């Protein structure tokens, strides 16, 4: 009896002893029939878990030698509004990033203030839904730090990015949930490939949310709003292209 291993015990009791085996956890694991059932449960839990943990996984980062010699532009490349044109003329000295909505301390940050905050640099691949990709280097303020500074209220569920440009009068905007908003690679980029962000690529500030497709990477961000619902923004689907061309709101890659 003293030499009886767990395996030996199971073997000697046989499959008919399932009910008996349920009295001890380690024994459940070893009982073939019971394990089948438990295994199924574990598989489901693992898949559910993966759906959650994958959202926080990092997008692949590249090295300087991988950087694309040419990084195309897409969509608007020059906001036409008088307000934006004025900001461009004075090199964004009077531009302010407004952060408001469901936050404790709404803020209006100058570009200088944003640049003085901690930065993150990442070389990532941008994938446009139209079928092109480019690898670029982005430097900016982790969105998490901006959100922590204003204090997102517990009732907020999404972060909306209001942009300076429009298509035929419909402003460009995008939105992400709080998982992506607090993701370490989600940054408000003010530099690209070691240069100040150009107007074509979204000056003075654009979103990089690296786990999603190109159209989520809002350029010309003027205002960041924390909301509990996307219904009242634009046509209610969470982004310009989501509203106008049925693009997926969650464009995970
Ligand atoms: N404000 C704004 N952001 C935008 C767009 C736009 O037209 N306006 N186009 C989107 C699309 S479809 C892509 S692929 C990328 C292109 O970024 P790039 O011009 O820096 O390459 O910006 C995205 N963000
Ligand atoms: Mo795109």
Automatic annotation (TrEMBL):
InterPro entries xref list: OxRdtase_Mopterin-bd_dom, OxRdtase_Mopterin-bd_sf, TAT_signal
Residue ranges annotated for the Oxidoreductase molybdopterin-binding domain, each copy included: 91-228
Span of the signal peptide: none
Pfam families: Oxidored_molyb (PF00174)
PANTHER family assigned to the protein according to its UniProt record, in alphabetical order: BLL0505 PROTEIN, PROTEIN-METHIONINE-SULFOXIDE REDUCTASE
Protein's name according to its UniProt entry: Molybdopterin-dependent oxidoreductase
Lineage of the species this protein comes from: Bacteria, Pseudomonadati, Pseudomonadota, Alphaproteobacteria, Sphingomonadales
């Amino acid at each position: 009896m003293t030499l009886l291993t767990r395996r030996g015990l199971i073997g000697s009791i046989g499959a008919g002893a399932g009910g008996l085996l349920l009295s001890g956890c380690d024994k459940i694991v070893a009982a073939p029939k019971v394990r089948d059932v438990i295994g199924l449960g574990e598989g489901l839990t693992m898949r559910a878990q993966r759906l959650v943990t994958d959202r926080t996984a990092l997008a692949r980062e590249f090295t300087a030698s991988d950087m694309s010699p040419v990084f195309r532009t897409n969509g608007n490349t020059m906001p036409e509004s008088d307000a934006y044109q004025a900001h461009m003329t004075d090199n964004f000295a009077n531009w302010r990033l407004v952060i408001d909505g469901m936050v404790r301390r709404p803020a209006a940050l100058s570009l200088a203030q944003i640049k003085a905050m901690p930065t993150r640099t990442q070389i990532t691949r941008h994938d446009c839904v139209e079928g092109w990709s480019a690898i670029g280097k982005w430097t900016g303020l982790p969105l998490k730090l901006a959100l922590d500074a204003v204090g997102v209220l517990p009732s907020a569920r999404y972060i909306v990015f209001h942009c300076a440009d429009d298509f035929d009068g419909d402003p460009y905007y995008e939105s992400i949930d709080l998982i992506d908003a607090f993701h370490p690679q989600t940054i408000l980029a003010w530099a690209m490939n070691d240069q100040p962000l150009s107007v074509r690529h979204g000056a003075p500030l654009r979103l990089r949310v690296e786990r999603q497709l190109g159209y989520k990477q809002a350029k010309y961000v003027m205002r960041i709003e924390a909301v509990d619902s996307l219904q009242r923004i634009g046509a209610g689907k969470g982004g310009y292209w989501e509203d106008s061309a049925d693009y997926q709101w969650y464009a995970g890659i």
